[in-house]
Amino acid sequence: MAHTHKKSEAVQPVQPNQARLQEEIQTLAYELYCQCGHEHGHDVEHWVEAERQVLERVERRSTR
């Protein structure tokens, strides 16, 4: 008796390249750091804001 494997019916959305996203977030976080006068102590804040902006752009592109 042959075994058959049923593939998942759900279609997975295409995910952007994770390395590219990481690089975009890193670059933007550094730009935010520079815009704030190179003030230390806001690295997490800058990272979270950069992540939000990049992911928002990705979302907008995917809904077009």
Instruction: Quote the distance from N terminus to C terminus.
Output: 47 Å
Please tell me how large the radius of gyration is: 19 Å
Fraction in helix: 55-70%
Put simply, the count of helices is 2
Explain this structure:
The chain has 64 residues and is mostly helical. It has one domain. It has helices at 18-35, 43-62. The longest helix is centred in the C-terminal third of the chain and has 20 residues, at 43-62.
What attributes does this structure have?
2 helices, mainly alpha, 64 residues
What's the gist of this structure?
With 64 residues, the chain is mostly helical. It is built from two helices and no strands.
How are the secondary structure elements laid out?
Elements: H1 18-35, H2 43-62
Helix pairs in contact: 1-2
